[in-house]
Automatic annotation (TrEMBL):
Record keywords: Oxidoreductase
Record organism: Tetranychus urticae
One Pfam family it belongs to: adh_short_C2
GO molecular function, one term: oxidoreductase activity
Protein name (database record): Uncharacterized protein
Amino acid sequence: MVDLNNKVALITGSSDGIGKATALLFSSLGAKVAIVGRDQSKLDKVAAECEAKSPHHYKPVVTKADFIRDEDVIRTFEETLSAYKTLDILVNNAGLAATKGFGEPDAMADYDRVQQINVKAVVRLTELAAPHLKQTKGAIVNVSSVAGIRPVTYWSYCMSKASLDMFTKCMAGKLAPHVRVNSVNPGLTRSNFFSSHPDPDALLSALAQEQPLKRIAEPIDIANVIAFLASDAARNMTGSIVVSDTGELIADPYAK
């Protein structure tokens, strides 16, 4: 059974999508959450929803930050620790999708941005959080992607997620037995990533038919895995790369 009552959790990238769903779920399970994102209005709405769902009516710590800046990463952790004085769970969810293909103009600048947010910010937060998580025998959950396991169009994004998976394994060994470190690797998940498409619902419906389970993941599907990995229900797991992808990795590309 997943029990997060009175656990303190820092959840990055929590103004929307998987991060928002995770913050709401953790709050409903009694956790004290710190939420982080770039959009203050969205953060305020998530904070209000978290408080409403909390059985204890806990108000989240809210930090507006852009992890492209290392100082924002550090400030995020400092504000969380200042408010709660302790930390039980770190969910590294903030991520940036690549937009430039290999050899396109500004591809290297795109690569640098993706690496900063998807990898370096995670390393920095882990470095800051580790001493405190050791004291609480806490857990880290990194939100990676199936793109870290198999290549897709955007090479720099795939590289960043493959790096994140290896970092998960390295830190699992480094921080054991005090801190458990696992990764969840989603496949296609409903999010604002598709909002620029003229008809996102039609696109997602079409993509769903290409998946073995004939569906696209909802953010709560991934949040449920994160909550499990963060809880004592997963006390026997560390260094695991947990795929939740509606069967995307086993899809037969030649099937008709």
